[in-house]
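Lab channel / #folding
Pinned by the channel admin:
"Please post every new chain as: sequence first, then the C-alpha cells as a reply. Keep commentary short and put observations after the output so the thread stays searchable."

First post following the new format, from NK:
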Amino acid sequence: MKNKSTGKRLEKIFEFAKNNSAFYKKHFKKFNTVSALNFYKLPFLESKHLYKNTPPNGIGLLSGPAKNCYVLITGGTAKKPKYVFRSMEDFKEKSKYFKGIKLKPSDRVANLFSAGMWGGFISWNKSLEEAGCLIAPLGHVSLEPENIEATLKIMKDLKINTLFGVPTTIIRFAQYLEKKGNKAKKSKIEKILTGGELITKDMQKYLSKVFKGALIRSLYATTETAVIGFQCERLKTNRYHIFDNQYLEIVDPQTGKPTEKGRTGEIVVTNLDKRLMPVVRFKTGDIGRLTEKKCKCDYCGKTLELFGRLDSTLCIEGTNVPLNAVSEAITSFPRLSQNFQMVARKKNKKDQLLVKIETNSKKVPTALARKVKSKINKNISESLSNIEVEIVAENSLPKNKTSGKIARVADKRRKVF
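Reply from TO:
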C-alpha cells in the first residue's frame, strides 16, 4: 500500500486530468474517483493516444492553451514523432536530476544531446540553468567526423570537464580520443551523465577505460514523462532511485495486470506534477522491476532495475538473444566498438541473426567475426548456427538524425512473405 501523501497526489492528478483534458474526460468516463488502492484499474495512456490527441490530429491531451511552453519531439528511433508539451513550470526545481553526479557551479558541461526539439537537449539545458554551472550547448552533431577537431578545441578553450549525452554519442567520442591517444589523457573529463538509451555495464566499462577516473552515471527518462530516476554513487548500471514526483507500476505486458512484488514487467509511469499535458499511467515500452532494498545513501524509496525495451530482445528460432548478450561478447575484443546493431532477418527461409559491429581499426582479422559469434553463443541459452557477424567501419552504422542514436535492434522478418 502506498503512503498517504502519494495517495493524495494520485487522486489530485486524476481529478485534474479528467476535469481539464478532453481526452482524459472521455478516457476516464467510467471513474468518478480513484485512490491508491484502485488506481491500477484506470486505462493506460499509450503512444496511439498521443498521436490522436496532439497536433496535427487534435489537442485533446492538453489541459489548456499551448502558451508559455515548449513543444518537444519524441520517437527519435521510431518511424514518426510524437509531440509532447511542457510548461515552464515543468522545468522548475530540476537540478535534483544531477544528485548522483554531484554537479557543482564550478563544473563546465558540454550538452551533447541532439539539438532542436529533441527532449533531452532542452530538458538538460533548462535543468543545468538551475545548477548554476557553465553550459556549452554543443549538440551531438558537434562530434561528427567533420566537426570533432573544432569541438575538441572548444572543449579545451572552455575547460569542459563534464559530458551529457546518449551512450552512442559519447562512445563515438571515446573511440576518437582513444585513437588519438594523448588527446584522451588531455581531455580531463571528470563526469559523464548519459540518458536516452540503455547503457550496458560493458559500455560503461569501456567509457571508464578511456576516461580514467571519471564518474559515470545515467538517468532514466522518457520525453513523455520527464526524468524518472537517478543513480547515486552506490547503484550499479541500470539501477535507479525513483524521484518522488513519479509513480511507477510494473505490469504484465500481455495482460496489463500488476505483476507480483519484485517480478519483471512493463514499466508504467504517472507524473504527479505535470499539468499542461498530464501523463497518467503511460505505458513506456520498457522492461524493469521494483525493489525495496535499502540503499546506504539517504534515499529511502523504491529502486528500479531497468532491463531495456520490450523489443530489445530478438527471438531467433526459439532462442532469445538480448542486447546485453552481444554487448558482453564485444567487450572481449578491444578492436571492436560498443556501437552495434542486431538485425533479425530471413535467409534461405530460416531465421538469421545479423550483428553489425563498428571497429576503430583499419585492418581487422577475418577470424574475428567467427570469434565474436562464438562469444555470443556462450552468452545465450542455446547456441545458434544461423548467426552472421559483420565488422563495419567506424561511424558507418546509420544514426537517427534527430536523436543521434543507433537503432540497436531491428526485426526485418515481418517484410518477408
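NK: DSSP finds ten helices and 20 strands in the chain.
TO: also worth noting, The two ends are 49 Å apart (CA to CA).
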